[in-house]
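Pipeline run #58 for the internal structure catalog. This entry was flagged by the ingest filter as a single-chain record with no existing model, so it goes straight to prediction. Upstream metadata was stripped on purpose; only the residue string is passed forward. Reviewer on rotation: M.T. Logging verbosity set to normal.
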Amino acid sequence: MRILYVSIAYPLPANNGSKMRLWAVLRAMASVGHQVTLAAFAEPEEVDGTEQELQMVCKDSDIVPLHYARLSGGGSYLSRLRAIFSSLPFTIDRFRSDDMRLRLERRVRDRSFDVVICDNAYSAINLPASASPIVMNSQNVEYLILQRYAEQEKNPLKALYARLEATKLRRFEAVMYRRAACGMACSTVDAALVRQLCPGLKVFVAPNVVDVREYEIEAKEDPLAIVHQGGMDWFPNRDALEYFVRQIFPLVQKEVPGVRLIAAGRNPTPEFRARFGDVTALEFTGTLPDLRPVIAKAAVTVVPLRIGSGTRLKILESGAMRKAIVSTSIGAEGLDFEPGKEILIADTPAIFARDVIELLRDPARRKMLGEAARNRVLQDYDRTALERSIMNALESLEQSIGTGAGKSHLASVS
């Protein structure tokens, strides 16, 4: 099939979870024989030096410059205020682009594709009404992230605003799914949530995956090193680190002298680092070209997420590297890791700290848990699993188009 793939993100360098999924999906479609044209936003520095690598996967591309406001970054207060009185949430409207809309209109007019795949609900904002058939691909159920943020936010005004945004975003996502021929979600949990938004929609599970061969890295384990992995420009990761540092790590330090916590992830701001000036056992790596060597030295990796949706590639990466993992239920949501055998799940500070302490004291159990996690990744989350899912979804779509059942039109949203 000829695929027009519309995304709010540029896939390279694949240095965060959303880019890793996007790049994996594009590669999977190309590897099973589909021709892909990518329409995506990017900042200039992302594109420089990656053109040849992109061309190996995508037959053609329309790359539009866009610097958008991050939801947790402050600023854009006037736009946020105006959005209160709009039917569209601010989180969607910030991706509206005349340039992208014109390029997509040209592509649709030329009919140089068989299907349009939207990488998430955000990317649908610029799609013309005549685009059809549509596949909605979801790396997250987006409204759920804002809903969970509101549950954790202590500032009542911020929490109220987030709940309002979540309600409008849920409504917008439902509209997009109702106009799609089919959907793709990264887990059975997310697929069920999508079906709640659009009862009767056929939804395929296209799991987040890693190429396990790329995680064969030898390194001597540091028996006192705990690694928290995640970009610090993503609020759920900052919230998770602060939760761990303030409520869990002190309990671990009391029982394991000399233990160290490494916060491995891009773009921690000076202000965020300064919050933890009193925690001498905490080290920020800052932005690194490759986090795998840091993960390889960890005795334990932790995923103390309280906000999120989708599935966590950081768990798949740690599992691929045979690391013992302790996570919250939200952190491990959607992944078929067996608690107690392939991962440890803890939703209170005391239990989370107890599990980390026990693993730090027991190298044999760390090894057993890590080996089991790697076997789970090999079985269900290697790149071949995504290729099979993509193939099944698009073959089903081809059949439905042939019978006329998949012909759907996306109306303009304003």
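catalog note: The chain has a mean pLDDT of 92.
catalog note: The first helix runs from residue 17 to 31.
status: ready for reviewer M.T.
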